[in-house]
Write a structure and sequence with these properties.
alpha+beta; Bacterial polysaccharide co-polymerase-like; 69% helix
Length: 447
């Protein structure tokens, strides 16, 4: 029944298909065609089997022709949209960027310099090339990284602005607003612009740093590079002085303590000598011993004389009385000298720090003071030797900035890289546009 019903509409729609190239069946999806064929409404799905062969061929040709003309029209529309988007998002911006880079961007001149943070220990090679081929030690490596951060820091920017007018040096030239520095920029933007114009590279293997400063005038770029090296040299000297002072500070403190101790010991010895009225009690003891020996010899001689005199005369004679008086005087003096030499009656004030009256006490007190003084002198001498050694070590470890390529004066503008920048802009726009188109078709095909 369905085949008979659709036979007449097939013939009737042949002419319609000729006059209207785009039929409703063409724009319908495959699922709709399949559903209409199952329900009996799609002529292509339900073609009568008993119809003549010529009529079926004619219907198939008309349907294919309509589908082809609709596909071509949709294909042309897609291509037109893609072509327009290519011109809008790729061709025109790339052309504008190339025009700006080739005709509006200002010339930039660079000044380069090469230097290295070295120490006297690390520079012990016999040839001058060894100073730059040796690997940097850990201390100089740390100082090199500190120097890199200092060159790109806000402090360096402040020091540069104190001497140079950066807004005038990097002022906008002509219509080049992209590479110029605007007036009244905040410090964060100035620092970002400064880091774009100053480049520092550090080779870890050789310890060599390469500085590159860009400006719109070659002489100004050279002056900026020279000032940066001058400030860097001052920073390295300050770091070296700080390290040197840190090494010497402890040695100087030890010297000061030893000197104070020696001063106190010498003052104590002087007070003792003032109280005892003698330079050295040991020498005084020697003299006392000689004196006692002499008195004993005199006493022996006088006793012998007294015995001889008694054998020849009576006891009440004047000679015997004189001998007895002399013997008594010598014995008294001998007893006094023995008491002073020994540890007998100490009538001095040793407890209060003064000198005692007996020689033994004075010797003991003096030896204690002299031992303290000698030890203080030795400690002071050792501390002086230590501080000299520390000073030599600190001098040997001193850092300095070795500049072996002075800032150059450029004669030809190297920046901006006009052709390279134009190519990179065009390549980036083309890549972004291709990703967008591919993403669009991917989403369209999935839906």
């Amino acid at each position: 029944m369905a085949i008979i019903r659709n036979a007449a509409p097939i013939a009737a729609r042949k002419d319609i298909a000729v006059d209207q190239p785009i039929s409703q069946d063409v724009v319908k999806s495959k699922s709709v065609h399949l559903l209409e064929g199952l329900l009996g409404n799609d002529d292509r799905m339900l073609v009568p089997k008993a119809k003549p062969e010529g009529r079926n061929k004619f219907h198939t040709t008309i349907t294919q022709k309509v589908q082809k003309r609709g596909w071509l029209r949709s294909l042309r529309l897609r291509h037109a949209v893609i072509l327009v988007s290519f011109f809008v998002f790729v061709a025109i911006p790339a052309a504008l960027a190339s025009f700006y880079m080739l005709f509006l961007a200002s010339n930039q001149y660079h000044s380069t310099a090469s230097f290295s943070v070295r120490s006297i220990e690390a520079a012990g090679s016999s040839d001058i090339l060894g100073m730059f081929t040796q690997a940097s030690t850990g201390s100089t490596l740390t100082d090199s990284y500190i120097l890199m951060d200092f060159i790109r820091s806000e402090r360096m920017l402040e020091e540069v602005e104190k001497k140079f007018d950066l807004e005038k040096i990097y002022a906008t030239r002509g219509l080049d607003y992209f590479y110029g520095m605007a007036a009244g920029m905040p410090v964060e933007d100035k620092l970002r612009y400064w880091r774009d114009m100053v480049d520092v590279n550090f080779d870890h293997a050789s310890g060599i740093m390469q500085l590159q400063v860009k400006a719109f005038d070659p002489a100004e770029s050279q002056k900026l590079a020279e000032f940066i090296i001058e400030q860097s040299d001052g920073l390295v000297n300050n770091l070296s002085s700080s390290a040197r002072n840190g090494v010497l500070r402890s040695a100087q403190d030890e010297v000061q303590l030893a000197e104070d101790r020696l001063t106190k010991a010498r003052v104590a010895v002087r007070k003792y000598r003032d109280a005892s009225q003698e330079v050295d009690p040991v020498e005084g003891a020697k003299l006392a011993a000689q004196l006692i020996g002499g008195l004993e010899a005199q006493l022996v001689q006088m006793n012998a004389d007294l015995a001889t005199a008694k054998s020849q005369m009576s006891d009440d004679t004047p000679r015997i009385r004189v001998l007895k008086a002399r013997i008594a005087s010598v014995e008294e003096q001998l007893g006094s000298e023995r008491q002073r030499l020994g540890s007998g009656n100490a009538s001095g004030n040793s407890e209060t720090g003064g000198a005692t009256s007996d020689v033994a006490g004075r010797i003991q007190q003096f030896e204690a003071l002299e031992t303290e003084r000698e030890f203080a002198e030795r400690a002071y001498t050792a501390s002086l030797a230590s501080i000299e050694k520390a000073r030599l070590d600190a001098s040997n470890k001193q850092r300095y900035l070795a500049v072996f390529i002075e800032p150059t004066l450029s004669q030809m503008a190297q920046y901006p890289a006009r052709i390279l920048n134009s190519f990179l802009v065009a390549l980036g726009l083309l890549f972004a546009w291709a990703v967008f188109v591919m993403g669009y078709y991917n989403i369209r095909d999935r839906t």
